[in-house]
Every structure is written in C-alpha cells, then in structure tokens.
Amino acid sequence: MGENPKRSNGRPYDLEERTFLFAKEIRSFVKQLSRTVANLEDSKQLVRSSGSVGANYIEANESVSKKDFLLRIKTCRKESKGSVYWLRLLDCETNSALEKERNRLATEAGELMNIFGAILRKSE
C-alpha cells in the first residue's frame, strides 16, 4: 500500500484507512486489559462496534442508492457512539497508561462520530 497523506494530528485523510486504524488500535488496547468478567464482556462489544464503523463505511461507499448510503452512514455514527460507551465502561483506572489510551481512543471515536454526523447533514 502507498503512503497515506496525514493531517497535522497524524490521522490519515482517507476515512476508510482511519476507521481501519481505529479498529486495529482498539484491538491492541483490549489485549492489554485485565481479564475481569466485565472487561471481557465489554471488550467484546467494543471490538464489534469499532470494527462495524469501518465495515459500514465501506458499505456506504459501495451503496447503490442514496437511502442505503444514508443508512450506512447513520450506522457508522451509531457504532462510533457505541464505541465511546463501551470504552467508558472498561475498568482500567488503576493503570494510568491504559487510562490515557482509553481517553485517546474515546476522543477518536467522538471525532469519527462528528465526521459521520457532518456527512449526514451534507447528504440529506
């Protein structure tokens, strides 16, 4: 793959790549969590929602109608918001490095949610 241009915050311009990186970063983060019952269950939900963001964005780009496109973008926004929720539930307060990473990932999920919201507003 070629080099992707990056914004000043280090994030790629390509939203498909950005959502892919988000899902990969979530998976790396989850591997570091303590294996409590709650973390295991919540991290499963987080992995699903984070992957769904990019998968639905790919589907939106391949949509055959405007209605389908809007539905997929709404799902991207919903799954981004869900990712924030599952990140907030995870127990990592006793590890400051994990807490910092969780906050960074929640910020990224929030930014993705805002991007998809903007796409919706411009497309409707």
Task: Explain how this protein is built.
This protein is mainly alpha-helical and 124 residues long. 76% of the residues lie in helices and 0% in strands. The protein is built from four helices and no strands. Helix 1 (15-31) runs antiparallel to helix 2 (37-61), helix 1 packs antiparallel against helix 4 (96-123) and helix 2 (37-61) packs antiparallel against helix 3. The radius of gyration is 15 Å and the shape is elongated. 26% of the residues are buried. The mean pLDDT is 92.
Q: Summarize the biggest pleated sheet.
A: none
Q: Per CATH, what is the topology?
A: de novo design (two linked rop proteins)
Mean pLDDT, all residues: 92
**The CATH class:** Mainly Alpha
- So, the CATH homologous superfamily? 23S rRNA-intervening sequence
> Helix proportion of residues, in percent?
over 70%
Write the element-wise H/E pattern from the N-terminal end onward: HHHH
Distance between the termini: 33 Å
Structural class: mainly alpha
Number of domains: 1
The CATH architecture can be named as Up-down Bundle
Low-confidence stretches: none
Q: Would you count the extended β strands for me?
A: 0
The Cα radius of gyration reads 15 Å
- Overall geometry comes to elongated
Give me the number of helical elements. 4
Strand content: under 5%
